[in-house]
Predict the structure.
Amino acid sequence: MGELKHYTFNFGPQHPAAHGVLRLVVEVEGETVISIDPHIGLLHRATEKLMESKPYNHSIGYMDRLDYVSILPNEHAYVMAIEKLLKIKVPKRAQYIRVMFDEISRILNHLLVLGSTSLDMGALTPWFYTFREREQLMDCYEAVSGARMHANYYRPGGVLRDLPNTMPQYESYAWRSPAETASLNANRQGSLLDYIESFTEQFPERCDEYETLLTENRIWKQRSVGISAIDAQRAIALGFTGPMLRSTGYARDLRVDEPYAVYDELSFNIALGKTGDCYDRYLVRMAEMRESNRIIKQCINWLRKHPGQVIADAPKVVPPSRLSGKENMEEMIHQFKLFTEGYCLPEGEVYTCVEQPKGEFGVYLVSDGANKPYRVKIRAAGYPHLSALEALCKGHMISDVVVILASMDIVFGEIDR
Amino acid sequence: MQKPTKIALRNYLKSRPGIQLTENIDMPVIVCPVEDLIALMTWLYQNDQVQANCCVDICVVDHLHYGLDEWVGVDATSTGFERARDALSKRDIHEKPGRYEVVYHLLSTSMNQRYRIKVKLDEPSDSVPSVTKIWPNANWYEREAFDLFGIRFSGHPGLRRILTDYGFVGYPMRKDFPLEGQVEMRYDAKLERCLYEPVQVQNRVSVPKVIRQDDQRHTMSEV
């Protein structure tokens, strides 16, 4: 018999199951993984360095491009840091809008994980289903901000603009009959809130649809039950947050433990798993989507009853309306100063974090009193998750690496920054 | 911070005058000399009243340009915008002691309490003891701090670059590293390989860094 040797191979950097550009150097014995060395940084864009060279508001757009699947919660953490240092109070309506869009983002994110995880395991159908729903939610993003993904919608002090009263409509053309157009526009006749409400009514049914396809599916369970099971203590030591930690049965959710915005006024449950394996992570995400749906419904009810301001009355930070800028000298000066120089933050430092769909997303902001951040450190939720890849994969098969990676919900925009 | 935690912390710090505890707007901040770091971290991790069981984040702050602005302002009123800017990147700025600061963010999930620990370094070559033995996930954070700032962590299991390119030279997040970098890469079709050349782009300050002393924030109305 010949000498037995470990075999080392590359996984990625261009691999559809790597969820971006990730290179794994995998050492195997037979088909069993001995060690994994993730090489990250292939999407490194020096976001933190760029932010140091720009006024505060210019960097909100960078937040969208960090975790480009859950866009608005990233912005939320960043604007919260600025608000905390400036001591601005955000109007309640703006906070409800933020929470509503944070939860829409959570559904968007979890739908993508669900679709791509099943795709990685060879099930194509859920991908098409989840993208059908994602399309509707992206329309909400578009209606409110003008962009389907990189919304750039939150501002220090509130949100850019109030929710629109009309929804954009589909138009007929040569290949789309008027009857077809009318059916596409059926739920777009009212305001954005009506549209979101119609979504929340049908969404639990859609969740049932996914569950019919996957939850009791034999292949799905064979691929995920018992894979990379982990206990809560170890998960905390490895820095896990979000669904990765909750799947172990440990109830930690920043929305409850360190409530921000208006989460303390809303009722929802924390979804928990038991074993912390890939299957539990999937179940936790499914349950979280249903909870998010509930939160969105509560936000809609509140927002319908409480019209009002969506951005704080803070002229040194918030630009004046276009009209008043043309009629009032003071306002024009504010407008000019804000768009050429920005605003200065008091000297100090602050760490703010939000429960982003992937876990704790934090922004550590250091200001030396200037109009640009002195240092911004972005605490990406996926970073500690990926660093624990070796710990989770050791002893599993090569094919499990793909499943574990998918269940971690990795996005390289935020890991590489 | 809960009361027993506060008492435990105060008692611990009483016998250690080098370590300072202050209360920031978001969490308590502990400034610690390098020599005491491991002892402090181990205590925070093990003490029943603190239980800092999770390392949330480790990062570095480079204080080279702290408090310096790029705006000549009043003196340049008659000369116009172009001459009023004084780019920090073009100035010769002397290093001060305590230039680098390693910042640890810790969390106790059981107490629901966060802590910020800071360690000041004069030279990047002053190595900081690694905390990977206490929190295994500190591994990548320390690698990142080494990669971007060149801070050495003694006792780290494999301190190598993580975010930058293979073969990268320099520490890009330091304040004296130019924003546009030092080299640019292109593929040369004739030579059939990648070439690294000095950057062509000029540094340009479009929005100068301004520090305003006339505190506008106090006039801000709150909703």
